[in-house]
Design goal:
The structure holds two protein chains of two kinds.
Chain A: E1 3-14, H1 53-65, E2 69-70, E3 73-74, E4 77-80, E5 90-93, E6 100-109, E7 112-125, E8 129-133, E9 136-140, E10 147-153, H2 160-177, E11 189-199, E12 209-214, H3 217-236, E13 244-249, E14 254-260, E15 270-271, E16 278-279, H4 282-290, H5 296-307, H6 311-318, H7 321-333, H8 340-347, H9 358-370, H10 376-389, H11 393-399, H12 408-421, H13 423-430, H14 435-447, H15 454-467
Parallel strand pairs in A: 12-13
Antiparallel strand pairs in A: 1-10, 1-11, 2-6, 3-16, 4-5, 4-15, 6-7, 7-10, 8-9, 11-12, 13-14
Helix pairs in contact in A: 2-3, 5-6, 5-7, 6-8, 7-9, 9-10, 12-14, 12-15, 13-14, 14-15
Chain B: H1 7-15, H2 21-39, E1 56-60, H3 88-95, E2 98-100, H4 139-146, E3 153-157, H5 163-169, E4 172-175, E5 195-200, H6 203-213, E6 243-247, H7 257-272, E7 276-280, H8 288-303, H9 322-333, H10 336-349, H11 355-376, E8 381-385, H12 401-406, H13 412-417, E9 421-428, E10 434-441, H14 446-458
Parallel strand pairs in B: 1-2, 1-3, 6-7, 6-8
Antiparallel strand pairs in B: 3-5, 4-5, 4-9, 8-10, 9-10
Helix pairs in contact in B: 4-5, 6-14, 8-10, 8-11
Chain lengths: 468, 469
Amino acid sequence: MEYEAVIGLEVHVQLKTKTKAFCNCRIEFGSPPNSLTCPVCLGLPGSLPVLNKTALDYAIKTGLALNCTVQEFTKFDRKHYYYPDLPKNYQISQYDLPVCKDGFLDIQVDGQAKRIRIKRAHLEEDAGKLIHESGNSLLDLNRTGIPLLEIVSEPDIHSPQEAHEYLSDLKMVVEYLEVSDCDMEKGTLRCDANISLRPKGAQELGTKTELKNMNSFKGVKDALAYEIQRQKVLLESGEKIIQQTLLWDPKENKTVVMRTKEEAKDYRYFPEPDLPPFLISKEKIEQVKKALPELPKERLQRFVREYGLSEYDAGILVASKDRAGYSEECFCAWPDKNKKPVANWLIGPLAGQSRVPAKNLVELIDLVENKQLISHLTGKIVLEEMIASGRSPSVIIQEKNLAQISDQGALDKEAEAVIKANPKSVEDFKSGKANALMFLVGQVMKKTGGKANPKVVQEVLRRRLDNA
Amino acid sequence: MLNKLTAHELLEKLEKKETTVNDIATALSSRIQEVDPRVRAYVRLAQPGQINQCGLPISIKDNICTEGLNTECCSKILEGFKPPYDATVIKKLKSAGIAIWPNKLNMDEFAFGSSTENSSFGPTHNPWNLECVPGGSSGGSAAAVAADEAIWALGSDTGGSIRQPAAFCGVVGLKPTYGRVSRYGLIAFASSLDQIGPLTKDVRDSALLMNIISGHDEKDSTSADIPVPDYTQALHGDIKGLKVGVPKEYFIEGMDPETRKIVDEAINKLKSLGAQVAPVSLPNSQYAVPVYYIIATAEASSNLARFDGDQYGLRKAGIQNLIESYKQTRGEGFGQEAKRRILLGTFALSHGYYDAYYLRALKVRTLIKNDFDKVFSEFDCIVAPTAPTPAFKIGEKSADPLSMYLSDIYTISVNLAGIPAISLPCGLTKSGLPIGLQILAKPFAEETIFRAAYAYEQSTEWHKLKPKL
């Protein structure tokens, strides 16, 4: 039988506010353990939470970018469970009135557009970190109370590939909003999945399992693929799927059981009495909506429209906001209407490299592509030098005497010497071996330290050989 | 003798340099040495050399955080807990030049009780009759003020925990409007009901203390951003034309007849002072106790979840398993009543029961609040008994939690509605136990309460009576 996977993702995005969600402790990474704490985030008796309004603003912003309805009346609830990394033994979260609900994200899978609905996005506080060391468990509460936005998709995802696309598009949107660093390895973006299988075409949902601890994009894909296969084998052998929570083990490439449904927790949600409900006005929502930055999709379309890029090229350049902004700067500095040469340099030689001022890059591209003062190869060398020294390409070319030699007279002299020194190759050429010409060109290039214009070299050599 | 005076009298003497804070501290100290072994209002006997006072002292209930000073909610589970911070009220007192007495006041564990019998330090005794309870949960605060072991005190009131002990001990106790006084640093029992308030020898001291501790606190999101008036301005003694409602549901068959008679006389006194008294109805009063015990225990079960021994307080040693460590620490750290309330509250919030209990209780709470709104649309205040009986004997109700819960029947609605109410002495029973008169007003109308209470107090002598110890 053919099966279809039904997947829903719960994504936790750590918001990069200056201070924690319910107290004034700074958020910083790499500080000494428990140095960024106060009575509130330590959950000391008598302390009370006060909402960081910026966290709420970030949640509204993200919700709107994900096409959600922002609720005008929202409140916080307590979610209870006992664990040492949760000092109050309850987490301040949102239960029945999340700040955002009913949104969607359109993704592309194999060239096909697909809409993944978003059920809700709610604010909550992060827990601390337990460190297990030589038989002891140590607790670092620096992370406790950092605001998280939990974004829950509907079960509209049907393959590991779709999950991957959804996750990377979601990450892109959140990065564009500048509300989170979205780094899975650092844990500022975390993803859990609910997954079940059903016979293809069936409406009814199968028994689901929950996957946790997928700490990379690859982990998400691998864990889902593994779980689909595991469930399939079970179903095909007539066994039942047990509802349970599984942990992905990336080293062993398999899942391990964390808990089964019988042990499922009763979180005993109830409204957080220490925080009165929040009213978010229509005006406020409109105001945030208007101030939303251009999102990745919009930018891609504009790059295609305004700069004449292919969708493929534009897609690469808008993948990060930073890169898109830099690319745009370079396009604007490039005087020609045809931006393709700039895009080629941005995607090619400069990809993954440190940036140089847009003005300098454009100057370099102009020297290579338009003025042909230097070869493409030399251009790349100059770029390395620009990155290393921060100087402009013309200064580097001049100082290092890298300018291309296109002077026919000068190159003719070199050609004459090379022909004289290589009678065998001249013979070969005359007997019809085309490679021999390339060898001679190479010899001239060598003599000029690579600065000769290869086109001109070829011209003068050919002229001499033909006339010989 | 200085310890017998009120705070306003002592402040005047200090102002005129007729006495010093050292003399006051010494007087208090010797009074505590003299009577506290019998009353047990404080959680510990003061250590010599501990008292180093820099202002007029105030005594604090054991559930209000004082930096570096043990704050244990009279629970074994918070044994040795010294908060690293001051509650907002403590900060306000300190900046007003008031000194914090270095020994905390006894209470029912986590304020769970109406008799101060549920304390890890043992019960407090009523100064008027040492065989009786002082009421609770702020029994230590009330007894200390009544026995002149404290000039004035802070307590907390979740369902009557300031007013009922004030009534039992013959002192003045005010439960402010929810949101009037910051809860930051008050170790929570039921967050939506708790308020800190004054226990004092007279109404003027109550108003003075409210001037100091009231006001918006950005650390408490439930505190109201409403200006604080000078409450002493309301102490002029004129209540002519004041519209006073007497709820018929509070004067029911089965109420202690002597209490009823004394409260009736007090109401007649208000009439004679020019108040317009009329009967009113609070029809949902009968639901107050069950609604309260669902909401309060639900919130308590959540608030007390943090006490697991991980960071502070009691921790059972030598246990390798996490859950087992929590079980044993909490099993040993919490007293019977705390366990009972945690279980009740956990049940009320459990999956499948939430709608039937907690959500329903919230709805009835709104009905109770509506009852008050309706009365206060026509009346300035409501008068009622504070408790249905005078102080009962130690041990009398401790085996019967239900009858104990019913001793708060007249005070609980006030917390559910979030309104302010005061209890002030209005008479003594034949056996010499004080009775309290309760005055209620609409939210943030503490001035109305002080106006009525002061007029009554000044026309009677009850507040001047002292227990013989």
